[in-house]
Write a structure and sequence with these properties.
The protein has 145 residues and is an all-alpha fold. Helix content is 47%, strand content 0%. The termini are far apart. The relative contact order is 0.14.
């Protein structure tokens, strides 16, 4: 059983519209779900156990993760259908999901329902950057002629 079930789309889209988008081809739906879950794993894996999050089924699934996974997969399906004419609310829901994932990734949101990595080690990432650019200007009074 997959993390996202077809019945989960009922809160976000009418079944007949979903069937129109996918053309009653479940492989399109499966592909969009896989992409959405892979996208979410990239943000969640720095702290949370993504294997256990997306292995859950039924009522054990995290409701917010499920909601955003459905929104992201629907966005991908709409983009597959007509990438220039993706409905505005789909793009807004996708951006909302991405913002939530960014906050989770940056540790601005600490969801107690999500399982933390079992060994509780912090994962090392390479941080890069530099100091802010400095502007060194000589005043006219400081220059001698």
């Amino acid at each position: 059983m997959a993390f996202i079930e077809k019945a989960d789309y009922g809160d976000a889209i009418n079944e007949n519209i979903l069937d129109d988008i996918t053309g009653d081809v479940d492989s399109k739906l499966d592909s969009a779900e896989e992409k959405a879950i892979a996208f979410m794993k990239g943000y969640l894996n720095n702290r949370y156990d993504v294997a256990s999050i997306f292995a859950e089924t039924g009522n054990d699934r995290h409701p917010v993760v499920l909601m955003y996974a459905v929104d992201i997969s629907l966005y991908y399906l709409h983009r597959l259908l007509a990438w220039r004419y993706t409905p505005k609310f789909r793009t807004e829901r996708y951006n909302e999901a991405k913002d939530w994932l960014m906050k989770i990734s940056n540790l601005e949101i600490n969801d107690p329902l999500l399982p933390v990595v079992a060994d509780d080690t912090t994962r090392e990432y390479v941080h890069f950057g530099s100091n802010p650019r400095r502007a060194n200007h000589l005043d006219d009074a400081d220059t001698e002629e």
